[in-house]
From TrEMBL:
It is found in: Mitochondrion membrane. Heme binds at residue 475. GO terms for cellular component: mitochondrial inner membrane. The keyword Ubl conjugation does not apply. This is steroid 11beta-monooxygenase. Keywords: Heme, Iron, Membrane, Metal-binding, Mitochondrion, Monooxygenase, Oxidoreductase, Steroidogenesis, Transit peptide. It comes from Electrophorus electricus (Electric eel).
Length: 537
């Protein structure tokens, strides 16, 4: 049995099962009745937006449809069929078959999965003062075995709230955004300088309209690491990833984050301590990846910067100067931010560039607004973003179709009723974002990439945009990620036209985050007088 377990727990290529993208079954249609006519999306139904219950007597928990009550058999089936890498498609298929709510048993975990905004709203209204989400036990076990402190991502209760409030002041408040926005803007401009140099050296065509087709993902990962995770925002310094010889340590850090993300999902449903004692290769790979991440996220980096001229000491410097959070907890939280801020920024940017490239009409509409706003803002990045709401719409539309995390989880503190089923307090409930974002019962023409759908008053209401979570437990790095994504898109659209050779849907895989199976290649063409729009270094 031990031998079979070891053989199963390996990381290798997974064949993606063919998954139908059919519309919801008649069960969903019966759950959705009266039209609401919300701004921007007509034809939605009352249960979609507001109703978590239903007609008739409330039914018991055991009556909720499920995918099989034996979690270990389900887990073996997941491994055999390669479902972990296509978990988002599996969820969509299961909702199509069973309706808008179902139970999932997987290994040692069980959950209730939902996707309609009305049910999600009821869930969040029952989260309490100290919201809890599913603990990533492999991460927690690594901290415990290595004697590392835990950051807010792995904490719960009053201790979580105290630390989170201190971090919010440095990364979530509008005053914090004003401090780090110019720094992210500088990194975004440097990315465009790098891209422009590549086009001039390796591209083809006339000087004012030179083109280059490339996979931008390596540079997008460097942008995310340079911008947020080891530079200005967290540590108050640049690490030179846009130089001709980026450091080997930084490249290894990116590799370690990707390895950590890829090895997490299979470990979620088994006792990590058991795997560690069995010396299973998958656990060893996971722990080693985290060890590399902690090594690279050294707290000494970037605090003392004599003569650097940097007026913002980074989140690290701010926290140390305030003296309200012990050094070990500062290190734990910055390591989590550093590990969580690279792929979760770089991957949405890949999807956004792809969608803009294959939707040239949308691209030109956003570009026009960006250019007008930049001109009026006179180079002020905050004013430029405020004057170009389609940039935020582009980000939200990208995350609707390609949510970084495919679920948001909560444990309700009281019994609740969802789709006329009683859910006991303390049950793990997951809002499933991939099928939510592609449901025609929630969005009009969900297959269309339309940033303007988020532009009207109330268009973000109704628990339809949840890529960064919700409430007190939303992503702590949200403001940084939103700023990075929008600023880079702003500068790319000012300077380059985007094209793709094929407009076919991009294949995706799930490795704790949703990402392309193969990074899309984009053709970047310099716009007229783009040399003048690029700011000098």
């Amino acid at each position: 049995a031990v031998s079979r377990l070891r053989n199963m727990l390996t990381v290798g290529p997974v064949v993606s099962p063919a998954v139908s993208r059919a519309l919801f079954s008649s069960r969903v249609n019966r759950a959705l009745s009266v039209s609401t006519g919300l701004p921007g999306d007509t034809g939605m139904r009352a249960s979609v937006q507001g109703g978590a219950g239903g007609s008739g007597a409330v039914r018991g928990f055991q009556e909720i449809p499920h995918t099989g009550s034996n979690g270990w058999i389900n887990l073996l089936r997941f491994w055999r069929e390669g479902t972990f890498n296509q978990l988002h498609k599996h969820m969509e298929k299961t909702f199509n078959m069973l309706g808008p709510i179902y139970r999932q048993y997987l290994g040692s975990q069980s959950s209730v999965n939902i996707l309609l905004p009305g049910d999600i709203g009821e869930l969040f209204r029952s989260e309490g003062l100290h919201p809890r989400r599913m603990t990533l036990q492999p991460w927690a076990t690594h901290r415990e075995t290595r004697k590392h402190s835990k950051g807010v991502f792995l904490k719960n209760g009053a201790e979580w709230r105290a630390d989170r409030l201190l971090l919010n002041r440095e990364v979530m408040l509008s005053s914090a955004v004003q401090r780090f926005l110019p720094l992210l803007d500088e990194v975004a401009r440097d990315f465009c300088h790098l891209l422009h140099r590549k086009i001039q050296m390796d591209g083809h065509g006339e000087n004012e309209h030179r083109s280059l087709t490339l996979d931008p993902s390596p540079d997008l990962f460097r942008f995310a690491l340079e911008g947020e995770s080891s530079c200005y925002v967290l540590y108050g310094e640049r690490i030179g990833l846009f130089s001709s010889n980026p450091s080997w340590e930084s490249e290894r850090f990116i590799w370690a984050v990707e390895r950590m993300l890829a090895t997490t999902p299979p470990l979620l449903y088994l006792p990590p301590r058991l795997l560690r004692r069995l010396h299973v290769p998958l656990w060893t790979q996971h722990a080693t990846a985290w060890d590399h991440i902690f090594t690279e996220a050294r707290i000494q980096r970037g605090y003392q910067l004599p003569g650097s001229g940097c007026q913002f000491p980074g989140v690290l410097g701010q926290l140390i100067e305030r003296g309200e959070l012990p050094l070990n907890l500062i290190r734990a939280n910055l390591t989590e931010l550093m590990a969580g801020g690279v792929d979760t920024t770089a991957v949405p940017l890949q999807f956004a560039l792809f969608e803009l490239a294959r939707n040239p009409g949308v691209q030109e509409k956003v570009r026009k607004q960006v250019k007008d706003s930049w001109l009026q803002a006179a180079g002020n990045p905050q004013k430029a973003l405020q004057g170009a709401p389609l940039l935020k719409g582009t980000m939200k539309e990208t995350l609707r179709l390609y949510p970084v995390g495919i679920t948001v989880q909560r444990y309700p503190i009281r019994d609740i009723v969802l789709q006329n089923y009683r859910i006991p307090a303390g049950t793990l409930v997951q809002a499933c974002l991939y099928p939510l974002g592609r449901s025609q019962d929630v969005f009009q023409n969900p297959e269309c990439f339309d940033p303007s759908r988020w532009g009207g008053r109330g268009s973000g209401a109704g628990f339809r945009s949840l890529a960064f979570g919700f409430g007190a437990r939303q992503c702590v790095g949200r403001r940084i990620a939103e700023s990075e994504i929008q600023l880079l898109l702003l500068h790319i659209l000012r300077n380059f036209h985007l094209e793709v050779s094929s407009k076919e849907d991009i294949n995706t895989k799930y490795t704790l985050i949703l990402q392309p199976e193969s990074p899309p290649t984009i053709t970047f063409t310099t716009l007229l007088s783009s040399n003048q729009t690029l700011c000098p270094q």
